[in-house]
Amino acid sequence: QVQLVESGGGLVQAGDSLRLSCAASGRTFSTTTMGWFRQAPGKEREFVAAITWIGGTMYADSVKGRFAISRDIPKNTMYLQMNSLKPEDTAVYYCAAGRRTYYFSTDSDDFGSWGQGTQVTVSS
User: Fold this and answer.
1) Nearest CA-CA partner of 37 in 56, 15, 13, 62
2) Burial class of residue 96 in the structure, from the number of CB atoms within 10 Å of its CB (0-12 exposed, 13-18 middle, 19+ buried)
3) Measured between alpha carbons, how far is 112 from 36 in angstroms, rounded to an integer?
4) Which residue, 6, 23, 1, is CA-closest to 77?
5) Which residues are registered as beta bridge partners of 25?
6) Which of helix, strand or coil describes residue 57?
7) What is the 3-state secondary structure (H, E, C) of 8-28?
8) pLDDT value at residue 28
């Protein structure tokens, strides 16, 4: 089981930027799809961004052009750079590791390891 620990959340104003980090145990980045998801109060968890084992990326339409997912393989760390934040980006953000190697998905059911979450709050 991969251990994931997020950090970097906080309270910011609309238009500000934040960078989330996800530190992972094990050699997961080179074989597995990694993703960021978020859950706002009263809403279901939703896909935000994913990065494949070869560095391909995908984003939810709501964050495309504002968020960027990246990874540092030697550091076993994944990042989510969030720019031009909006109040509707307020949520708990989770990083996750895919269940299967060399398999791409944005469905949360295909991710088997999850971090504890980090709160992002954007005030208007």
Assistant:
1) 62
2) buried
3) 13
4) 23
5) none
6) strand
7) CCEEEECCCCEEEEEEECCCC
8) 79
Amino acid symbol at 101: T
Confidence of residue 2 (pLDDT cuts 50, 70, 90): confident
Give 15-61 pLDDT, tens digit per residue: 999 999 999 997 678 899 999 999 999 999 999 999 999 999 999 99
What are the E-state strand segments in the chain?
4-7, 10-13, 18-24, 32-39, 46-51, 57-59, 67-72, 77-82, 91-101, 111-114, 118-123
Q: What integer is the mean pLDDT of 51-80?
A: 96
